[in-house]
Amino acid sequence: MNIMLKMILNMGKRKRTPNPNKGIPKVRINEGTQQKKKIEQILKRKLLFERKIYSIFSRFIGKNIDKAINTSLGEIGRLSGASRTYLFLFKEDGTRMDNTHEWCAKGISSEIDNLQNLPTDMFPWWIAKLHKDKIIHITDVSKMPAAAKAEKEILETQDIKSLLVIPVHIRGKLRGFIGFDNVLKTGEWNDDDIALLRISSDIIGYTINQKCTDDALKESEQRFRTLFDTAMDAIFLSDETGRFQDVNKSACKMLRYSREELLKLSNRDIDVEPTGYEAFLKVQAGVIKKAMFKVNQRRKDGTHQPVEIMGNSFTNNGKRIFLAIARDITERKISEELIEKEKEKAEKYLNLAGNIIIALCPKARITMLNKKGYEVLGYKQGELIGNNWFETCIPEEKRADVKKVFRKIMQGNLKIAEHYENLVITKQGDKRIISWYNSVLKNDKGDITGILSSGTDITDNKKAEAEIKRYTKELETMVKERTKKLSRSNEELKGRVDELERFHNLVVGRELKMIELKNRIKNLEKLKKKS
C-alpha cells in the first residue's frame, strides 16, 4: 500500500503539492496523554487519507470512468465536509465548458443542469488563475477581490460561502478543474483537503487522458478495420516469413479462398511468378521501401489472376508487418490488349495518310509521328520519338514564335492558334513550310495532356505561288506597256478619223451642192420651154 501511495503522491510532480505529513509533531516518550491522543487523531486522519487515495486510485483502474469520478467526488466531499464537489471540463476550442460530474451532500440542491455549455469568458479572473496552474482557495466569497467581481456574483447566486478549486491538466494542457463548495459556512480548507483534491485532480486528468487515447486508438482501429474489410482491392498482411496474418474480404473473393484457408498460406503459395516474393525480400532487407509490380496470382482452382501490387512494411507492437495491396487488372489487361490492337490499326491508317500527323506531350516531346512525317523530315521510322520538337525540327530563328503558339494551344486557346504555318528543318538541313491544323488531347478529367497536329507540306505550293506572282507582275508590266502603245495609236487613229470626217463632210457637201445645182438647172429649163 505504501508503494502505491508513493506512486500516487508523485503523479504530476507538482512543486506545490502539500505534504500530508505536515503538522505531525515529533513524539517524545515523556509526552502527556492529551498530546498522544492528538497524535493518534492525526495518524488516523493520515491513514484515512491514504486509504481514500488508494480507494480513488484503484477505482479508476476499472472501465467505468464516469461512475469512478462520481463515487470519488462523493468520498472527497464527505471526507472534507464539503457541500458540493464537482468536475468541469472545457470543450475542444476552450471557449466553453460543461459541469460533467457532481456530488451533493444531503439537503444540498444539484446545480449540474444549470452549468452546461458555459462561456469560459464569464469567469476571466478564475480562468486566468487556472491557466497559471494556481489553486483557487476562497475562504469567504463575500470578501473576494474586485478583479473577481463576475465570479463573486455567480457564486453568490448559488449561496456558496467558500470554495477550493484545483486545475485539471490533460496531456499537459489545462482542460478543466475540480472543486469543493461549502454553502453552509465560510472557512479555510486544510492542507489535507488541498492535497486530496490535488491528487484526485491528477488521477482524473491522467485517467481522462488515457481514456481519450484509448478511444482514439479504438476509433482508429475500427476505422482501419472498416476500410480493411470494405476495400475494393485485396489486402494481405504477412509476417517476416511471408505467411499471411490477415486478409480482407476482397482477397478471399478474388482468389476464391476462405479467410481461414488463406491464413494457412504465404505469398509464395499464391504468386505464379517469383516477382512477388523477390520484391518482398527486397522490402524485408530494406533495399527498397516500397514495391510496385505486376504479377499473376494463383486462385484456389488453379486459374491465374493478373494483379498490380503495391507493397510496404510497418511495425506493430514490435513486430514487422508487410502490407500488400493487390488490384485486379483483368479488365485493364483486356483493355490494354484492345487498345494495342486499335493502336496498330490506327498506325496503319495514319501511315496511309497523305499529311503529316504528329503528337506532342506538354513538354513538346514527340510521342507519335506517322510515315509521311518521317518522309518530309528526312528521318528513319521511330528515330524522332522522345525528341524535343523545337530543338530538333524548328529553325533556331523561328523557335520563339513557334513556342508562343504552342503555349496558346496548350492553354486551350484554339481560336488564336487553331491553324498556322511555320518552317521546319529536315535532317539534311533543308527548310520546309508546313501548314498545321491543331487539336488538344485530353484525359478523362478534361486536363490537356498534349497536342495532335495534322500538317501539309506546302513548300512547293509556296514556290509555285511565288512563280505565279512573278509571272503576274511581268504580265501586268507588259499590259501597261501595250496600253501605253495602244493609247498612242488611238490618238493617231483619232486624228486620221477626224481628217476622214472632215474630208467626208467636204465631199458630201460638194455632192449635195451639185445635186441642188442640177435640180435648179432642170427647173429653169422647164420654165424656159413653157414660156
Strand order of the largest sheet: 3-2-1-6-5-4
Our measurement of the CA-to-CA distance between the termini, rounded to an integer number of angstroms, reads: 195 Å
User: Runs with pLDDT <50, length 5+?
Assistant: 1-30
- Give the overall silhouette: elongated
User: Can you say what the CATH homologous superfamily of the largest domain is?
Assistant: GAF domain
Largest β sheet strand count, sense and barrel closure: 6 strands, antiparallel
CATH class of the largest domain: Alpha Beta
Helix content: 40-55%
In total, how many domains does the architecture comprise?
A: 3
CATH topology group of the largest domain:
Beta-Lactamase
Question: Class by helix and strand content?
Answer: alpha+beta
Strand content: 15-25%
Total count of strands: 16
Number of helices: 16
Short description:
The chain is α+β, with helices and mostly antiparallel strands. The chain has 16 helices and 16 strands.
